[in-house]
Specification:
The complex is a heterodimer of chains A (315) and B (337).
Chain A lengths: L1 H18 L7 H11 L1 H23 L31 H37 L1 H16 L2 H20 L1 H15 L3 H15 L2 H8 L4 H37 L11 H8 L7 H29 L1 H4 L2
Helix pairs in contact in A: 2-12, 3-4, 3-12, 4-5, 4-7, 4-8, 4-10, 4-11, 4-12, 6-7, 8-10, 9-10, 10-11, 10-12, 11-12
Chain B lengths: L3 H4 L4 H36 L6 H5 L5 H11 L5 H13 L13 H36 L4 H15 L2 H15 L15 H39 L2 H8 L4 H39 L4 H10 L3 H29 L7
Helix pairs in contact in B: 2-13, 6-7, 6-9, 6-11, 7-9, 8-9, 8-11, 9-11, 10-11, 11-12, 11-13, 12-13
Classes of the chains: A mainly alpha (315), B mainly alpha (337).
Chain lengths: 315, 337
C-alpha cells in the first residue's frame, strides 16, 4: 500500500510540469476566449470602443463650440476648418456629432441599466417565489408587452415633457424622462428570460444543498442563482443598448426627443432632414454614426450569444 | 407527408370541439388585457398636465358661468374612475367622440387614414415575406457557405439601419440626385388606369421598400434560425437516409416544421411594423395613422390620440391572439385544452 501512495505522489510530481504555465480555466474565461474567436464581434467591439472614446475625449481634442451661431458660416460643405461642414446656424457639425454621440450612448447605456434592473428584479422574484407572485408579475409583463411601444412613448413624452423640464431643468429633465421611459417600457424580455432561468435553476441540487444548510432566500437568489442566470441577460443587455439608442434617435427624429441645444445623433438628423437637397453631408454624419453604433452593438451581442450559450460553445 | 398524427382522422372530431374552447379561452384572456390597457392609457392621459379648457378660459367672449357649465356638462372635474366608466361605456357603444381640432367624428378620421397605412404596411409585408423565407431557407441549408455569409451580413446591415436614415438616403438618391421619384407621398394622384397605377407605384415604392427591407432583415434571421433548429432533427436525417430527393427533404420535412415558429412571429410582428411605420410615414409624409397621431399630439387633440393609441393596442392584442391560435393549430403537441 505504501508503495501505492508513493507512486501517486511520484505521478503527481511528474505531472506537475505539464500543468505549469497553464492557467486554471474558468467559465468566464472560456466565454471570453470564445468571444475573441468571433471575428465580427471583435470588430464590433473595436468600432464601438472607438465611438465611445471619440465621443468622450473628442470634444476635448476638437474644442469647437456646439451652440455658437455664426450665420456667415452657415451651410458650408466639409472643409479643413469644418471637417463635416456646418449646419443652417453655422454650427460645426463634427463638434455637434461628437457631443451628440456622448448623449446618445449615455441614453443607450442608462436606459439599458434601468430596463435590465427592473427586468432582473421582477423576473427573479417571479421565478423564485412562484405561485401568486409569479402570476401577478407575469400578468403585468403581458399587459406591458401588449402596449404599443412607440405610440405610448410619444404620448408620455408629449404629455409630461414640459412639466419635467420646469421641474429639473431642460437638459437633465429631458434626459431623465427619455431614459426612464425607454427603460420602463423595455424590461419585459429580460424579466421573462430571468424568470425562465430561475425556474430551472431552482430545481438544481446545489440550490437544494444551499437551502439545506440554511441560506436565506435573498442570499440564495443573489449569490447562488443570479450568477447562473446571467448569460441570457448579458446578451439581452447588449442588444438593449442598441434598441435604446435606436428608440432615442427615433424620438428625436420625430421632434419629440432632445432640444436642439442638447444635440443627439437623432436630433441632428431631424434638423438636417429638410436640407437634404442643399446640404446632404449634414444628415450623413449623424446617420452613419447611429448606423455604426447599432451595427457594432448587434455584432457584439451576436458574439456574446455564441460565447455564452453552452449549446453553441460545444460546437 | 404521411405523418402518423394525420392518419387518426376519426380522433379529430373531439379535437375540433377542443379547438373552439381553446379559441374561446384565448379570447377571454385577451379581454382583461384590453381593459387593463385602456385603464393605463386613460390614467396617463388624465394625469398629464394641461387642460383642454385652458384656451377657453383665456377667451374673454365666454362668460365664466358658461365655462363652468360646460365643464360640468362634460364632467371634467369628476373623479377619475367616474370619468373612466363614462368613457368606457361610450366606447363600448362605439361612440368614440369628436376631434377637438377638426370637430370630425374620430371614427371618420381614422377611416380616412387607416387604409393608407394598411396599404403601405401590407404591401411591404407581402414583399418581405417571400424574400425572407427564400433567403432564410437557403442560408440554413447551406450554412456557412458564401450565400449564408452574404445573407447574414445583409441581415445585420438591415437590422442596424434605422428606417429614418434609410428613408433619407433613398430620398437623397432617388428624389434629389436622380429625380426619379417624388419625395412627398400623395393620395390625390392624377390620371386613371395604367397612369394612375404608375403614379401610385412612384409614390409608394420608397416607403414600402424602406419598411420591407427592415422586415426582411429580421425575418431572414428568424427563418434561418427556425430552419437550423429543424434541419438537425432525426426525422430529417431519416428522410435523407431513405433516399428522398434533397428538395423534397428540405421542403416537405424540414420547412413545413420550421414554418410553425415563423408563422407565429409573422403574426406577432405585424403590430410592431404598423407602429414602426409611423416613422416611415413621417419621412415620406404619408398621410396615414402615424402622421395623424403626431399631428394630434402636437394639437393636444385628446380624443384622437386616445383612439389611435388604443387602436394600436387592439392590433397588438388581436395579433398576439392570432399568433397564439395559429400556434395551437400548427403544432399538435401544444395542448389545446
Amino acid at each position: 500500500m505504501a508503495a501505492g501512495t508513493g507512486t501517486t505522489a511520484e505521478l503527481a510530481a511528474r505531472a506537475e510540469p505539464l500543468f505549469q504555465g497553464r492557467r486554471q480555466r474558468t467559465l468566464w474565461g472560456d466565454a471570453f476566449r470564445q468571444f475573441r474567436r468571433h471575428r465580427m464581434a471583435m470588430l464590433g467591439l473595436i468600432v464601438f470602443s472607438f465611438l465611445v472614446v471619440a465621443t468622450l475625449i473628442g470634444p476635448a481634442i476638437y474644442p469647437k463650440p456646439i451652440n455658437d451661431i455664426d450665420l456667415a458660416q452657415k451651410l458650408h460643405g466639409p472643409s479643413l476648418s469644418h471637417p463635416f461642414g456646418t449646419d443652417d446656424l453655422g454650427q460645426d457639425i463634427l463638434a455637434r456629432v461628437l457631443f451628440g454621440g456622448r448623449v446618445s450612448i449615455a441614453v443607450g447605456l442608462v436606459a439599458m441599466l434601468i430596463s435590465v434592473t427592473i427586468g432582473t428584479l421582477l423576473g427573479a422574484l417571479a421565478g423564485f417565489f412562484g405561485g401568486f407572485t409569479d402570476v401577478v408579475i407575469m400578468r403585468i409583463t403581458e399587459v406591458m408587452l401588449s402596449l404599443p411601444q412607440l405610440p405610448l412613448l410619444l404620448l408620455v413624452i408629449y404629455l409630461f415633457r414640459d412639466k419635467l423640464r420646469h421641474a429639473i431643468g431642460p437638459e437633465l429633465g429631458t434626459f431623465t424622462m427619455i431614459v426612464v421611459i425607454i427603460g420602463a417600457l423595455a424590461w419585459m424580455r429580460v424579466a421573462r428570460l430571468v424568470r425562465a432561468s430561475f425556474l430551472s435553476i431552482k430545481e438544481k441540487e446545489y440550490i437544494e444543498a444551499a437551502r439545506s444548510v440554511g441560506v436565506p432566500s435573498g442570499r440564495l437568489m443573489i449569490v447562488h442563482m443570479l450568477p447562473n442566470a446571467l448569460s441570457p441577460v448579458i446578451v439581452a443587455a447588449s442588444l438593449g443598448v442598441a434598441a435604446a439608442i435606436l428608440t432615442e434617435s427615433a424620438l428625436s427624429f420625430l421632434g419629440l426627443g432632445f432640444p436642439p441645444d442638447l444635440p443627439t445623433w437623432g436630433r441632428i438628423l431631424y434638423d438636417a432632414k429638410d436640407r437634404l437637397d442643399t446640404a446632404p453631408y449634414w444628415a450623413m454624419a449623424p446617420g452613419i454614426c447611429i448606423f455604426l453604433a447599432i451595427l457594432s452593438i448587434n455584432f457584439i451581442g451576436d458574439g456574446l450569444r455564441d460565447a455564452l450559450d453552452p449549446r453553441r460553445t460545444s460546437q | 407527408m404521411c405523418r402518423p398524427g394525420r392518419e387518426a382522422a376519426p380522433a379529430r372530431r373531439p379535437g375540433e370541439l377542443q379547438v373552439t374552447t381553446f379559441i374561446f379561452r384565448r379570447v377571454l384572456i385577451a379581454i382583461p388585457t384590453l381593459i387593463a390597457i385602456s385603464v393605463i392609457l386613460f390614467t396617463i392621459l388624465h394625469l398629464a398636465p394641461g387642460d383642454p379648457f385652458a384656451e377657453l378660459a383665456l377667451n374673454p367672449d365666454i362668460p365664466p358661468e358658461v365655462r363652468l357649465n360646460l365643464r360640468k356638462q362634460l364632467g371634467i372635474d369628476d373623479p377619475l374612475p367616474v370619468q373612466y366608466v363614462r368613457w368606457a361605456t361610450q366606447v363600448v357603444k362605439g361612440n368614440w367622440g369628436y376631434s377637438f381640432v377638426s370637430r370630425v367624428n374620430v371614427l371618420t378620421l381614422i377611416r380616412q387614414r387607416l387604409p393608407t397605412t394598411l396599404f403601405i404596411v401590407g404591401t411591404a409585408y407581402l414583399v418581405a415575406i417571400p424574400f425572407a423565407i427564400l433567403i432564410g431557407v437557403v442560408s440554413a441549408v447551406k450554412q456557412y457557405s458564401w450565400i449564408d455569409n452574404v445573407a447574414t451580413t445583409f441581415a445585420f446591415l438591415g437590422i442596424s439601419l434605422p428606417s429614418f436614415f434609410t428613408g433619407l438616403v433613398f430620398i437623397l438618391i432617388f428624389s434629389i440626385w436622380l429625380r426619379w421619384l417624388p419625395f412627398i407621398y400623395s393620395t390625390h394622384l392624377p390620371g386613371s388606369g395604367l397612369t394612375y397605377l404608375w403614379e401610385l407605384f412612384k409614390h409608394a415604392v420608397m416607403p414600402i421598400t424602406v419598411l420591407a427591407l427592415i422586415q426582411m432583415a429580421s425575418l431572414t434571421r428568424y427563418v434561418r434560425g427556425a430552419m437550423l433548429d429543424v434541419i438537425g432533427q432525426d426525422y430529417v436525417r431519416t428522410a435523407r437516409a431513405k433516399g428522398l430527393a434533397e428538395l423534397s427533404v428540405v421542403m416537405k420535412h424540414a420547412f413545413r416544421n420550421a414554418l410553425i415558429p415563423v408563422v407565429t412571429i409573422l403574426a406577432l410582428d405585424l403590430p410592431a411594423i404598423i407602429t414602426g411605420a409611423l416613422i416611415t410615414e413621417q419621412i415620406f409624409r404619408v398621410p396615414g395613422m402615424g402622421s395623424l397621431l403626431i399631428n394630434s399630439l402636437e394639437a393636444k387633440d385628446t380624443p384622437v390620440v386616445m383612439f389611435i393609441v388604443f387602436t394600436y393596442a387592439i392590433l397588438v392584442v388581436l395579433f398576439t391572439l392570432i399568433a397564439d391560435i395559429l400556434y395551437g393549430f400548427l403544432d399538435p403537441r401544444i395542448k389545446l385544452a
